[in-house]
Specification:
This protein has about 325 residues and is mainly beta. The chain is built from no helices and 24 strands. Strands 13, 14, 15, 16 and 17 form a five-stranded antiparallel sheet that branches. A hairpin with a 6-residue loop joins strand 16 and strand 17. It is globular and about 55 Å long.
Length: about 325
């Protein structure tokens, strides 16, 4: 689900792995690779009272350990149709040491009437963690933004929206002024097209002290969708330029030919002014079958190095501040 790089250039990834004798259940899983790809450790995790789970996100801590978020549940096969049924679930935050040993685990949403996931964790400059909690339940459904310390003590938690649009795939970026940028794909629906009426991306700025919205913007393709599938991908990287402009990097396919991610066919660099007002959008591809943006690294002089997926091979590309390759 997610990968981080340590100060020693090692790689730690988290996700889930099928239980050998469980049949239908998964263990949360984490593993560490050296910079040369050697497996340093790989471990499974399951709290008492649960039989299936996964880790969704991970962030590296200054002490060499890691904070992980996960979802664990108790499942059983239902009689007489033999379908898998979730009896209850738990959203958690856990601390791993540098060797993958579980130090502690804390519950965030243990209610049986809610299904929730923590889909993003980001370390801020003062050592706090910001993240998102998506909750789906009978009495409340929505996305919550939160800030907590490294012991998972929550400092604030707010629900913020970008107008009436649907948002997803959260990426955080801490600005030089301390404000928190949040971005991802977005779409609109209407009565005549209940699935997707417009598609694009959103960008919002949060006050780091209380999580309240400073400003929010959305950017949609001018071509009206011809079908119901989403053809925009997540925003893997947000960059702050030397002049305080903002750049979002993502991928998309033509709005008239809908292909679900990760099969988007064009890379995208969308730049805004410091307050989020639209400035410019540049799409780029590498012939057929096209490419999509996997990761981005900011270089000096507002240049960026892009790792691109191109069919069965990866590509590297360097672009300037205007998006020219």
């Amino acid at each position: 689900f997610q990968t981080v790089e340590t100060a020693q250039n090692d790689i730690v990834s988290v996700g889930s792995v099928l239980q050998v004798d469980g049949g239908f259940s998964y263990d949360a899983w984490a593993y560490k690779l050296s910079s040369r790809g050697t497996v340093l450790w790989a471990k499974r995790y399951m709290p008492s009272g649960y039989n299936s789970g996964n880790f969704n996100s991970i962030v590296a801590l200054p002490d060499g350990g890691f904070l992980v978020s996960g979802l664990f549940s108790y499942q059983k096969r239902r009689f007489p149709d033999n379908q898998i049924e979730t009896i209850y679930s738990l959203t958690m935050i856990g601390k791993l040491d540098a060797y993958g040993n579980l130090v502690w685990m804390k519950m965030l949403v243990p209610y049986r009437t809610y299904f929730s996931t923590v889909n993003s964790l980001t370390l801020t400059s003062n050592g706090d963690i910001v993240g998102t909690l998506d909750v789906f339940g009978t009495n409340f459904s929505g996305r919550l933004f939160f800030r907590m310390d490294q012991e998972a003590n929550v400092k604030w938690c707010t629900q913020q929206k970008v107008g009436n649009i649907k948002t997803g795939s959260v990426t955080f970026k801490e600005r030089r002024n301390g404000q928190l940028l949040v971005s991802g794909w977005a779409y609109k629906s209407s009565l005549d097209n209940p699935l997707i009426n417009a598609q694009g991306f959103y960008l919002m700025s949060l006050n780091p002290d209380n999580g309240r919205t400073v400003w929010s913007q959305s950017y949609f393709f001018t071509t009206k969708p011809q079908a119901g599938f989403l053809s925009t991908a997540s925003v893997p990287f947000i960059s702050e330029m030397d002049n305080d402009d903002i750049a979002l990097f993502s991928s998309y396919s033509d709005t008239e030919s809908f292909i679900l991610p990760p099969y988007t066919r064009k890379g995208l660099m969308l730049t805004t002014f410091p307050g989020g007002m639209f400035r410019k959008a540049v799409g780029f591809e590498n012939g057929k079958p096209g490419c999509s943006v996997a990761d981005v690294k900011r270089l000096a002089g507002d240049k960026h190095l892009l790792l691109l997926n191109h069919s069965d091979m990866p590509l590297l590309a360097e672009i300037d501040k205007e998006g020219t390759i």
